[in-house]
Specification:
Helix content is about 45%, strand content about 15%. With about 425 residues, the protein is an alpha/beta fold.
């Protein structure tokens, strides 16, 4: 860096060179220290990922700091605490955002104030659920979104003398597949992670009867949903279907080869790539072919990046810089490779699709075909509202345990859930602003 030479020092030097008298009595010049470049402001990215997710996120942060001179630090996103400058909020933690809107600022507003307006005219329509306001502006970044798909073990299909390239398309067809898998020795022919997200939100959407109406009222106790949950109850009794938890506990059972099929988030193809003994197959989540209108689109949801309120201009400038970094085509492809989420832009989608297809991975193709360009939803998802999701899980588990019939359980879940929503109206919103 070139240092600016002070005018007084120049004057003294010239005077000394041209006057012997002044040389005898030189003027004393006090050198001022050169200006020091200021380091980037510290800012934090809060998260509540597990050890593997944290390690992956740290790699992204390290790259950002190295390439941009940033000073981003990871911290834990603790329930009830004020949010950090940036916050990675997963689907099952959205209640904190919805009930505390004053703790956050819209992403588009933060970016504009930092002098880095968002340019996302080609943002996929599938990825706007819960992160776009009434004017179409981004209030958060849909960083790792996905949609439910059916993963299956092709080796298990071969063992059961099933065509590994012909996964079941409908739930009716799937029952015959599960019977053959069981006969082939699989004690767990089928399982599912995220039961409320998959079997209430998405089964409802794919059947064309949304789980929540336009007014934010729960409506997932209609005939298609009751028939589906009743079918799952019979599969549980027949040991075709096994549930291992309310989140992604079942994914480990598929990864280890214990279960032959699983419905879960499309992003998990990244986690299943190294599964021993599993040759990964992927297909759209099955649908009920007796529902009027045929198969409709599945939904997209996942982890999104939210800006915390009350931070300094310097912090927001660094936060905006990080958002722009994440949106670069190179980083978009990298995020798909590392996390398996759906690419945000057309260019990133094209690049990621090319790379994955080279590796024989068709998950992105299947996920986008499943959403049909309509993966977004202007109403909240049942899985996003923590107290409502807990109620739905309780009632579903009563069905799986043969303690309640499907109709009674779903009626109770809707009644209890709507009572919660009536008391906490903010949970009826898809996003807080």
């Amino acid at each position: 860096m070139q240092h600016r030479i002070l005018p007084s020092v120049i004057a003294v030097a010239l005077a000394c060179a041209g006057s012997s008298a002044m040389a005898a009595k030189p003027a004393k010049a006090v050198a001022k220290p050169a200006p020091v470049a200021q380091a980037a402001a510290d800012f934090e990215l809060a998260h509540n990922l597990g050890p593997v997710g944290e390690e992956q996120l740290q790699a992204v942060v390290d790259r950002f700091n190295k390439e941009t001179g940033g000073n981003l630090k990871l911290t834990r996103l603790e329930k009830g605490e004020k949010p950090a400058g940036l916050n990675l909020v997963r689907r099952y933690d959205m209640t904190e955002v919805l009930t505390q809107p004053k703790n956050f600022v819209p992403l588009h507003e933060m970016m504009a104030k930092a002098g880095q307006p968002l340019k996302l005219t080609d943002l996929s329509a599938d990825l706007k659920s819960g992160v776009v306001d009434g004017k179409g502006r981004l209030v958060a970044l849909p960083l790792v979104y996905s949609t439910p798909v059916l993963f299956y073990n092709k080796n298990a299909f071969r063992k059961a003398k099933l065509d590994p390239e012909q996964p079941p398309k409908t739930w009716f067809e799937m029952q015959g597949v599960l019977d053959k898998l069981q006969d082939a020795g699989y004690a767990c022919p089928y399982t599912s992670s995220w039961p409320v997200w998959v079997h209430i939100d998405n089964v409802s959407a794919v059947s064309g009867v949304p789980a929540v109406n336009e007014k934010g009222v729960l409506t997932f106790n209609g005939l298609p949903q009751v028939k589906h949950i009743a079918m799952m109850a019979t599969w549980t009794k027949a040991n075709y279907f096994k549930l291992f938890g309310r989140r992604n506990e079942a994914s480990a059972k598929f990864h280890d080869g214990e279960c032959a099929m699983i419905t879960t988030d499309s992003r998990e193809h990244i986690d299943f790539r190294d599964a021993k003994g599993v040759e990964l197959g992927v297909a759209p989540m099955p649908y009920h072919d007796d529902v009027y209108g045929g198969r409709q689109s599945s939904l997209a949801d996942g982890a999104s990046l939210w800006a915390g309120a009350g931070k300094s201009a310097a912090e927001y400038k660094q936060a905006a810089k990080f958002v722009s970094f994440l949106l670069s085509p190179e980083m978009q492809v990298e995020l798909v490779r590392v996390y398996g989420g759906l690419p945000l832009t057309t260019a990133a989608r094209s690049a990621a699709r090319s790379k994955l297809l080279q590796d024989g991975d068709k998950t992105l193709e299947v996920a986008y075909a499943s959403m049909k360009g309509r993966g977004t939803s202007h109403v909240p998802h049942v899985a996003d509202a923590d107290p409502v999701r807990i109620i739905a899980n309780e009632e579903l588990e009563a069905v799986w345990a043969d303690k309640k019939p499907a109709k009674a359980a779903l009626d109770t879940a809707v009644t209890r859930g709507n009572a919660v929503l009536a008391a906490k109206a903010v949970l009826k919103k898809a996003q807080p602003f």
